Amino acid sequence: MPSIKEILKTSSQKLKGMEQSPYKVASILLAESLHVETLWLLTHEDEVIEAPIEFLDNIKKAQEFCPIEYLLKKCSFYSRDFYVDERVLIPRPETELLIDEVIRFCKDLKEPTIAEIGTGSGIISILLAQLLPKAKIIATDISKDALEVAKINAKKHGVQERIEFVNCNLLDKVEEKIDILVSNPPYIKRGEVLEKNLSYEPNLALFAGVLGDEILKDIIDISIKKKVRYLACEMGYDQKDKIINYLKKHNMKVKFYKDLAGLDRGFILPLNPSDFA
After folding, report:
1. Residues 6+ positions from 106 with CB-CB distance below 8 Å
2. Domain extent at residue 237
3. pTM for the complete prediction?
4. Which partner from 3, 6, 37, 71 sits 20 to 30 angstroms from 236, CA to CA?
5. In 3-state terms, what secondary structure has residue 234?
6. Is 72 part of any domain?
């Protein structure tokens, strides 16, 4: 039988060109299948073992560009671990900025009602429930499968009683008055060629329509119709001008924020322009 070092060397060679750090990925997958820490592999690299079937299967899937988060059934977001699978989009680090923006303008609201459109894995609503203990949270999604994952995560983080999950399109079944509307909606135009690893993620959470900004515009219209105090929304890096042009007819101020790469990543829209004065 091979040693741990040999198993990792062989496996990482199979992942060359498919992962930025093939040896690291192989180590994480092996450690997970052996139920040990990756440091343990380093200190036991000469130990002879039989490679677990689960590990070998995951290496094959990784060769086919399956994201490691789906293989591990978990991801890290906002320094917390969340359950994910192919039913939901894998959370991206830039979405942490969306949460930061919501927290920033919530400081002056005592008991806000916050609604999230397209909750997916539930990360945004769950973190807002944790960080804003007096807020009422309503999380919607058109996908029943996604809501199942969101409920798993809400229970995992102890906020299942704090969040009302609603299966609907946008806010179709939400009648409550909303103070804050937040969303990381699909914003990729239909037919756009994506990286291979994105083929594993649900199309419903990625593609928005022919132009890619259709759902963003729908959400803006909803925020105006429902007279929410703030709309916080993530968007594509190249959609700033489209949002500005769409808001011209409403004569509304909008604040954009950038991600860590310096790209336009989202916007904050107040119902009351004096909030940005």
Report:
1. 112, 114, 132, 135, 180
2. 87-276
3. 0.89
4. 71
5. strand
6. no
